[in-house]
Amino acid sequence: MHSTVFMYGSCDGVFSAGMQTHYSLILLQSSYFELLLIDIFMKTKQIYLDDSYQKEMDAVILDVMEESEGRYRIILDQTVFYPMGGGQATDQGILKIENSEAQVYQVMYKDGEIWHFIKSEISPEVGQQVHGIINWDRRYKNMKIHSGGHIIDFAMHALGYSPNNLIPQKA
Question: What is the pTM for the complete model shown?
Answer without folding.
Answer: 0.71
